[in-house]
Amino acid sequence: MRYNELGDTGMMVSHIGLGGAAFSNIYGTYDEKRSFELIKESLNRGVNYLETGPWYGQGSSERTIGKALKDVPRSSFFIGSKVGRYEKEPEKMFDFSVEKTEAGVDNTLALLDLDYVDLIQVHDVTFAPDISIVLKETLPVLERAVRDGKARYIGIADYDIDLMKEIVEESEVKISTVLSYAKSTLFDNRLQNYTNYFKSKRVAVINAAATGMGLLSNKGPQPWHPASDDIKAICKRASDYCKSKNVELARIASWFTLNQPGIDVNICGFFNVEQMVDTLDLLESGLSEHEKIVLSEVQTRYFDKVTLHWDDVELPAYKAELDKVVNK
């Protein structure tokens, strides 16, 4: 396993981190026993950073990780969680207020059964009613949580990298990390345009969703995926090509992402131990010659000189759902 320093935090984190969304029903049926096995075997194989949050299963991810870590020495792992995004119902999904943020930190610690988290992040800041709420309410609460010993460092997590850059520039509270997702992939590698900037500010870069939340896999994405039908069709053609060559698209997509520069930790969600072991082996041993040829073909045939994304899709969709509730 490779280890990288997470910005200026002093934490040496594994290049692959364990994603907590897997410990919910977001990407498939949740299974507690399978989740425990995955967490423990990941730690055994050198993964020392775990990423979670209340949004993932409305507490099931944090609760599961807390149970799995019960007898694990606290000094042997790092863990990041989140505030800001909570429930499935549109009217309760996002809350960046002082009161909810304070309660959110305490609830996270209770579910994890920990005295502190190493990193507490504001989740999906795009959905805040105004950036000033994040700057003047959410972040100062997290700063107090750090002073009180409930967290060590503060970060932000969002799909919109420009918005995270703006918050880093304007925040009076020290931002130690940014978490970007689905923008260090075969179809959208824009994160590379920002890594040097964040490094210059001594802000660590966390990346997630190497497969674009399932788009870059032979199985394909979940029904809820926000990408357009056109994007899904392109990725489906890429996966069909990989199947015809007996190659798993998720493997070559993951290899591409794991080898991008300037990223301190890549958060990977695994369904089971086998997927985790395969990805760790991929980091260590790389692709076969056949897989390298297929990767080159996939890049040329389907993703050459294009950037596929769902910018400006999720916020309007959320507001539309919220309007339905308000106007009932």
What are the key terms here?
10 strands, two-stranded antiparallel sheet, alpha/beta
Textual characterization of the structure:
The chain is an alpha/beta fold and 328 residues long. Helices cover 43% and strands 15% of the residues. The strands form two sheets. An eight-stranded parallel β-barrel has the order 3-4-5-6-7-8-9-10. Strands 1-2 form a two-stranded antiparallel ribbon. α1 (32-44) crosses α2 (60-68). It is globular and about 55 Å long. It starts with a strand and ends with a helix. The model has no long low-confidence stretch (mean pLDDT 97).
Main sheet properties:
8 strands, parallel, barrel
Oligomer: single chain
In whole angstroms, the N-to-C terminal distance is 53 Å
Low-pLDDT residue intervals, each spanning 5 or more residues: none
Beta-strand share of residues: 5-15%
Order of helices and strands: EEEHEHEHHEHEHEHEHHEHHH
Task: Write the topology of this structure.
Elements: E1 3-5, E2 12-14, E3 16-19, H1 32-44, E4 49-51, H2 60-68, E5 78-83, H3 90-93, H4 98-112, E6 117-123, H5 131-147, E7 151-158, H6 161-170, E8 177-181, H7 195-200, E9 204-208, H8 229-244, H9 249-258, E10 265-268, H10 273-285, H11 289-302, H12 314-326
Parallel strand pairs: 3-4, 3-10, 4-5, 5-6, 6-7, 7-8, 8-9, 9-10
Antiparallel strand pairs: 1-2
